[in-house]
Amino acid sequence: MYLTSEEENILDGEQGETLRKAMEILVALGDIYGADSLIPVKSAQIAGVSYKTIGDAGLEWISDLEGTVKVPSILNPAGMDMVRWKEMGIEPEFAEKQLEIIAAYEKLGISSKCTCTPYYLEGFSATCGDHLAWSESSAVSYANSVIGARTNREGGPSALSAALVGKTGNYGYHLDENRVPTVSVVVDHELSGSDYGALGYIAGKEIGNRVPMFHLASTPTSDELKGLGAAMAASGAVALYHVEGVTPEAKQVHFDKPDETITIQRSQLDEVYETIIGNEDDLECDIVAVGCPHCSPEELNRIADLLEGKRIEKELWVCTSREVAQRYPDVVKRIEESGSKVLCDTCMVVSPATEGHNCMMVNSGKALAYVPGMCKVPAKIGSLETCIKKAGGDN
């Protein structure tokens, strides 16, 4: 891989040990994946934030780093709401470690806005063709597919390295040839809302890490595309997909039809809705959680409308970024008047507060894929309306 003289100097340690380590990671990955050079990135989104997932070893590694990131950089969700962690039942020892992790990242100049939907943040926009170094699976999928930007699914260390250097390797989805669809997915029935998460949950398992082109009978909204991509990234390893006539590259580029076609029937989606993942028994869900990926302003408004004038009977979490919640305080107030909790900075997947529940109802294919394995809690998917009813919000 070609390096400029400045990049060689960084690799030789002439700009400090932290940058040397960062460059070493980027060069190693570039060599593995056949990059010809490093390319500048517009921003970085860094995973490896929750103390639940990185532990003391991760905290120690981050704390030892010095320097300042070269591009706007933000964090993935943490293991708790940074303000209301006591209400979540988080232990003080966990909270202390989590706060240390955030402080270590902030020392490097990284914003502590912890979210898996950075594209909702003001001043952190990405546009079609931008090169990024993002690491959270659903954010990567949204950036590549819905925005038309270009990023590989970076690991936490490689995204942090790219943030510190301001560059990443020119390989994978940064290249035109790797963005070509390799399998067609046909869905000839109408879809709405959580159907896209259920579709993604099925499709991801069949597609793996390939690039699908979807042929749909209905036109998805941006939130529905978010749910589709997030589920495929969780149940499979899809980091880029196209939707005929909808996503940017599917409208701008003429792709040849892939040789393989997968057809997904309505009965397959119905089966996902009927199944409790992680347990064969017909368990009663004792908690409901929505906002995986984090809720958009439109989703928060929809939830507020559904909860209007109601009082829930079960725990109901609505996860979103702190910036979005602060931007719409009246909507948050409407939601919480029902007894629901609008939680920021975190989500049900990466927080220890999820553990110990009997069964969780979600409206997300991503949460359906992750919660049983990462949290050891069985999960069931339903529409947003079904989730509200399950929480007792039909009174």
Please, could you describe this protein's structure?
Its EC number is 4.2.1.182. This is Phosphomevalonate dehydratase large subunit. It is an enzyme of class 4 (lyase). It catalyses: (R)-5-phosphomevalonate = (2E)-3-methyl-5-phosphooxypent-2-enoate + H2O. Residues 1-389 form the Phosphomevalonate dehydratase large subunit-like domain. The protein is globular. It folds into three domains: 5-176, Aconitase, domain 3, CATH 3.30.499; 180-273, Aconitase, Domain 2; 278-390, 2-Layer Sandwich (Aconitase, domain 3). Helices cover 40% and strands 14% of the residues. Helix 7 (195-207) packs across helix 14 (365-375). 51% of the residues are buried. The chain has helices at 5-11, 17-33, 51-63, 92-107, 137-147, 156-165, 195-207, 222-235, 248-252, 266-274, 297-307, 322-327, 329-336, 365-375, 384-390; strands at residues 38-40, 44-46, 73-75, 111-114, 133-134, 167-169, 183-187, 212-216, 242-243, 260-263, 287-290, 315-320, 341-344, 360-362, 379-381. Strand 14 (360-362), helix 14 and strand 15 (379-381) form a beta-alpha-beta unit. It is built from 15 helices and 15 strands. The strands form four sheets. The protein has a five-stranded parallel β-sheet, with helices on both faces. The mean pLDDT is 96. The chain starts with a helix and ends in a 5-residue tail after the last helix. It is α/β, with parallel strands linked by helices.
